[in-house]
## 1
Amino acid sequence: MILLAGPCAAESEQQLLATARALPGDTIFRAGIWKPRTRPTSFQGAGNDGLAWLSRVKQETGLPVATEVASAEHVRAAVAARIDYLWLGARTTANPILVQQLADALAIDHTGVKAVLVKNPVNDDAALWLGDIARIEAAGVSVMAVHRGCGHRPCWKMAHTLRTERPDIPLLLDPSHMSGDAAKIPALVGQASALALDGLMVEVHPCPAEALSDAKQQLLPEQYRELLPLFAPDQGKTSELTWLRAEMDEIDDHLWQTIQSRMQVSARIGQWKKQRGMPPLQPERFAEIMTRRLNWAQSQGLSGEFVKAVMSALHEESCRHQE
Ligand code: PEP
Ligand code: MN
C-alpha cells in the first residue's frame, strides 16, 4: 500500500513540519511548491524555498518527500535537492511535448528519485496517459499512475483502461482533486478499496480553512487517520464486474444530473409560455421530438418501445415542471 499525504501547497516551513509530524510513519509526504493555478492572482507556490523546507521535513521526521514538477528546470532543482518522489500534474500530462521535456531531463539525471507519479491528464484520454507513462519510463525511472479524474468527474473508465493495459504498475487514487470536497473523500476511498487500487494521495493541511489553495478539499491530519481504515484493498475480492459497476454508477449519476438540468430548462420554458398565455402541452412539438429520437434510436439498436416510454415519461415530468 502506497500512501502519500500532505498539503496541496507548501506555505511555510512551520506548516510543513506541523503537518508531517501529525502523519503516520508510513506516509510519503507530499507538498506542491510550483503550483499550476488557474488565475495569475492566486498563490503560485513557494518555489525553490520550498525545496529546503521539504529537506527539513525529511531530516526531522524521516518521511520521504514528494513534489510536483512541471518543467525540466523543476526536475533539475528537485533532483539536486534529493526529493524522493516527483509527480506530474494533470495539466502537465495533457501536454506530450512538456512530458517529453521532463522525461529528457530525468534521463540525464534522476539520482535519488525513487519513482515518478504520473497523474491522468485533465481531459478523459487513457491513451495520452499511457503515452505519458511510456515517455517517463523510457527515462529509466520507475513509474506509478495516479487517478485524479477529470475536473470533479471520476472517469472510472479511464482508470479501468489503465489497470487493464498496465497491471504491472501501481495505480493510486487522488480523492482530493477528484472530488474537490473533503466531505466526498471517504466514499471515494471506499471505492478505491473495492477496486483494489494500490494506494492513495490525499491532501492534508493543519488548518484547511486557511489553506492558500484547495481549501475545500483538504483534510485535518486526524481526519486522514480516520480515513485509512476504509482503505483495505483486496485483489481477491475485486473483478472486472467491480470496475464495470463503478463505470455504470458514474453514467447513472451523469444521466440523472442531465435529467435534472432538462427539468430546469423546462421550468423556464413553462414561465415563458405562461407569460404569453400558452398551455404547457404543445402536441406538434412533442410529436417532432419523439420522431427525431425514434429515428436516432433505430440507428443505435434501441427498441422503439423503450424510446417511446422514456420520452413520454420525460415529457410528462417536464409538463409537471411547467404547471
Ligand atoms: C496537486 O496534486 O497538487 C495537483 C495540482 O493536482 P492535479 O494536477 O491532479 O490537479
Ligand atoms: Mn491541490
Note: The radius of gyration is 24 Å.
## 2
Amino acid sequence: MRTLKVVGGNVLSGTVIASGAKNAMTKLIIASLLSDKRSVFFNVPDIGDVAITLDMCREIGMEYVWDKEAHILEVETKEIKTSYIPQRFSGSNRIPILMIGALLSRSQGDIVVPMVQGDAMEARPTDLHLAALRSLGAHVEIQACSNTEAACHAFAPNGLKGTEIILEYPSVGATENSILAAATAKGTTVIRNAAIEPEIIELILFLQKLGAYISIDVDRTITIQGTRIFHSVQHTVMTDRLEAASYAMLALATNGRIFVKNAQHQHMVTFLNAVREIGASFSVKQDGIEFWAEEPLHGDIHIETDVHPGFITDWQQPFVVLLTQCQGSSIVHETVYENRLGYVETLTKMGANATLFRQCLGSRNCRFNNHSHPHCVVIKGKSELHGQSISIPDLRAGFSYVMAALIAKNESSIYGYEFLERGYDHLIHKLQSLGANIELEKAQKSLKEANSLDLFDSLLQISKQSPSLKSL
Ligand code: EPU
C-alpha cells in the first residue's frame, strides 16, 4: 500500500475538472453486456473501480479499448465465453452481484459470481437483489467458500419473465440489478419503491439508447418491457457529483475559491442548499459551479442522509470535516448505511470536537435507531486540526482524511492511497494544481513486488483485508 504525505494549511484555489461518475460508469460497462453490439463511452474516469470492472468483464468475453488520455472506452462482448467470475474478485467492489442481472439474459448455464460473507455480509446485505431476481424467475443461491467468502450461483432454465417487484427499501444496487434483468425478460416488469438516483437515470438513458423500453413514474415506479433487439450506442457519462462536491467542500474548508468545471447543477441541488445554509456562496456557471465563502462559516445545521433527492450518504464524510471548520453545533444523521461514521474517531484524534450517538437525533427515527453502530454525530466547531498518521478504511472516509490533513497545520501520513484511486481520478495532480502540499511517498516495495503487484491486484488484496471496504 502507498502512503500520502500531506502538509496542511494552504488555501486551495483555482479550477478543477470533475471527471465522469464512478457509480454510473461501472454500471454502464455491466449494462453493455446485455448486447453483442459495440458501445462507446466518453468522459470515462481513470479510476480503479473502472479498471476492476473491465477486468471482470474481460474474464467473461468482453473486448475493450480504453484511451485514458482521451477518456474514451470502447467495449464489445460478441459472445459470453464463461459466466463464472473468479473468486479472486470477491470483495473487490459492489459490481459482481450486478453481473447476475445482466448475464441471465445471455447465458443459459450457471452464473457464478463471488461475494463476501460472515461479518462483512451482515453489513453488506444482498437480500433485495436476490428477491428481485427470484421473482423474475431465476434460481439464485449463495454458497459459502470459506469463513469470509461466498459465491452466488444463478440460472434461469426457462428464461426470465416480467413481474412486479416491490423493493422494501429503495436500494440503488437492487434497483439496478432488477432493471438489468428485466431489460430482456419476457413481458413487462414493474419495479415499485425503486431508487431514482441520477446514476440510475443514467443507466436508464444508456439502456434506452441500447434498445430497451423503460419508463419512470413520479412515484418511484420504473416499468420495463423486455426486448432482445439492441443497437450500438455512444454515450457521454455524467459528471461525478460526489467528486464535484468533494472539491467544493475543500474550497470552503480551506478558505479558498474553486471553480468545479463540469459540475452539474441538477445533480447537486440538495448539496447546494446545505452549502448556502452554512453561509457559503456558489455561482452556477454555464460549464460548472464556483464555490467560496465571503464570511466565516456557521454550523447550526441538521443534515440527514437519504436516498435521492436527499443528501447523499457519500457527501456525508467530507461535510462532517467541513462542519469542524464552522462555528456552532451541527448534527449529521446517517440513515442509508448503519456503519458509516467509523472515521469520526480519527477526526477527533486530529482535534475535531465530534460525539457519536446510537440513537437517532432529529425529527424522525430511521431503521438504525439504537442499533449497535453509532449513526449520528454532533460536531462543534470551529476546531484546529492537527496532522496524524492515518490508515484509510474506505474510499469516502479516505477523502475525508485527506481533507482534514489539508486543513491541519502540520504534516500527516495517510496510508492506503489505493482506496482513493478507486474513485478519484488523478486526485494528487488535481489537488496539487489547487495549491495543496500533497505527494505520494516513494514506493518502499522491492523491485520483484513492483513487477508483480499492479494497482488492480493491490486493490483486491487490501479490499479483502478491510471489512469496512467490503461493507460498501
Ligand atoms: N441494502 C439491503 N439489502 C440489499 C441491498 C442494500 O438491506 O439487498 C441496504 C444496504 O445495506 C444499505 C442500503 O440498503 O444500508 C443502501 O444500499 P444500496 O443498495 O442503495 O447501495 P449500493 O448499491 O450498495 C451505491 C453506491 C454507494 C452509495 C449507495 C447509496 C455503487 C457502486 N455504490 O451502493 O457508493 O453510497 O449506492 O447511494 O454505486 C461510494 O461511491 O463510495 C459508495 C459506497
Note: Residues 22-23, 94, 125-129, 169, 171-174, 195, 197, 312-314, 336-337, 395-396, 423, 472 surround EPU (CB under 6 Å).
